[in-house]
Amino acid sequence: MNSPIFESTATTPLLSALSTTSSSGSNSEDDNDNDNIPIIDSTRMPFQDSKFRLPGSQLCGHSHKSLAVLSGHVGTISCLALCGEFILSASQGKDIIVWQQPDLRKFAKFGQGDGSVKALVTIGNKVFTAHQDSRIRVWKVSRSSENVFRLVATMPTRKDYLGKFMKQSNYVQTRRHHKHLWIEHADSISCLAVSKGFIYSGSWDKTLKVWRVSDLKCLESIKAHDDAINGLVQNKGLVYSASADGKIKVWCKKNSSEHESSSSTSAHSLKGVLVGHKDVSLNSVVVCPDGELVYGGGSDGYVMVWEGKRGGVDSRELVGEVKAHKMAVLCLSLVGEFLFSGSADKSIGVWRREGVGLLSVGILRGHEGPVKCLQASPSSVGGGFLVYSGGLDRSLRVWWVPKEKVHTKKT
């Protein structure tokens, strides 16, 4: 029987800038950490014709497998991002670690700023990180630089500040006796999303801000919710924001306005409101590829499902719900017909989507603290795929989940 194979992953501009440096060695800090490099097998396994083979015993059978536990963060892991052959994990200790797939070696480590990293996204050869200090930092990836990940900007940029700080109308009241420029977040930035050349940032200050990728300029600030924004996702030109106020709101960019707006002139319109359980915070949101189903994770342990008619989202209704966990659902990840839910109860629920329903496939256990973030890889691995989870126990765990049906139970 042939061994399961890790299929080669797609290369992005971010990765192409890094791929040649990985073979030439990392910086001295990474070299000093070689003794602590966590890998799947006890011996390092080389690439063979752009494919990576694991021992057949690793992925035998039809149930999920725990493949690795990666350590190295100084703080609890707060967010993850998949970038082709790399996975980035960030923590409340300000550090961001770049792990190289599939052997899961630590490739680089970077970070700077005040407060923990709350979210990160990659665009081309840049990484955008959102922080507790209400700033977004921009890192350029370059193989010609001594520091592969180099800090190049902070948002709002100084140019953006200089263009607005003199005009009183650019200031908004954030709380009693406190004013800020409308381009600034007044509290932690909790989530980021990217859509059609724009970055969207959601914050505990209840606002959704829109930034242009080309010049890093803040174009718009939307008073989006009545409580903290906990999650953002984009799908087919729509942006979904999940909030502690128990609602998911759907935003659409107006075609007539592509230029800079002010805090009082909106270039985005509210397309729909998805209402969850009363007095229950929505902590995460994901949308299926065709946009027909939206999933939200609640602080009461439920995963909620909304469905709408084709051609619009205004009529979306709550059509299903699952008591997924004993404690709050903190994160969700969606790949193909599978949905994953991470919880404060330290477990990860595995669900198969069937219509508007969810079938329980299993539970992944191993974290010693709440599961804060999840990323499922769409790449096929030995008849299944990989799932990455970050927890408040400071560990990044790697799981293998089979694609074939295995004793599902309708919930």
Give a structural overview:
Keywords: WD repeat. InterPro entries: JINGUBANG-like, WD40/YVTN_repeat-like_dom_sf, WD40_repeat_dom_sf, WD40_rpt. 5% of the residues lie in helices and 49% in strands. It is mostly beta strands.
Concise account of the structure shown:
The chain is mostly beta strands and 411 residues long.
Name the shape in a single word: globular
The number of E-state strands comes to: 33
Mean pLDDT: 79
| Distance separating the two termini | 36 Å
Q: Major sheet, described briefly?
A: 5 strands, antiparallel
- Helicity range of the residues? under 10%
Contiguous helical run count = 3
- What would you report as the Rg, rounded to the nearest angstrom? 21 Å
InterPro entries: JINGUBANG-like, WD40/YVTN_repeat-like_dom_sf, WD40_repeat_dom_sf, WD40_rpt
Keywords: WD repeat
Pfam families: WD40
Which helices and strands, and how do they pair?
Layout: E1 5-6, H1 13-22, H2 28-32, E2 52-53, E3 65-70, E4 77-83, E5 86-91, E6 96-100, E7 105-110, E8 117-123, E9 126-131, E10 136-141, E11 149-155, H3 158-162, E12 171-175, E13 178-181, E14 189-195, E15 198-203, E16 207-212, E17 218-223, E18 229-235, E19 238-243, E20 247-253, E21 268-275, E22 282-287, E23 293-298, E24 302-307, E25 317-323, E26 329-335, E27 338-343, E28 347-354, E29 357-365, E30 371-376, E31 384-391, E32 396-402, E33 409-410
Antiparallel strand pairs: 1-2, 3-32, 4-5, 5-6, 6-7, 8-9, 9-10, 10-11, 12-13, 14-15, 15-16, 16-17, 18-19, 19-20, 20-21, 22-23, 23-24, 24-25, 26-27, 27-28, 28-29, 29-33, 30-31, 31-32
